[in-house]
Amino acid sequence: MIALDNVGLRYGNGPEILRDLSFEIPARSFQFLTGPSGAGKTTLMRLLSLSLRPSRGFMSLFGADVSLIE
């Protein structure tokens, strides 16, 4: 249902905040997102909610390529 392949994110011309992120979350699965402060949990959730767009890579939500969603 959610797939990320080699996704990277940077703010402006700064360094990549997230890089080479690849994973799949199948339909009807339950996942936990944990990690220390500053690890990128909120940034990942903002990517998945389309409040941020990846700087590079492929991201698919519910079978739709997010680069085609406006």
Key features of this structure:
70 residues, mainly beta, four-stranded antiparallel β-sheet, 11% helix
| Computed CA radius of gyration, to the nearest angstrom | 12 Å
**What is the SS-derived class?**
mainly beta
Shape descriptor: globular
Helix count equals: 1
Strand content: 35-45%
Order of helices and strands: EEHEE
Mean pLDDT score, rounded? 92
* Strand runs, count: 4
Could you please describe the fold and organization of this structure?
This protein has 70 residues and is mainly β. 11% of the residues lie in helices and 39% in strands. The chain has one helix and four strands; from the N terminus they run ββαββ. The chain has a four-stranded antiparallel sheet, covered by helices on one side. The model has no long low-confidence stretch (mean pLDDT 92).
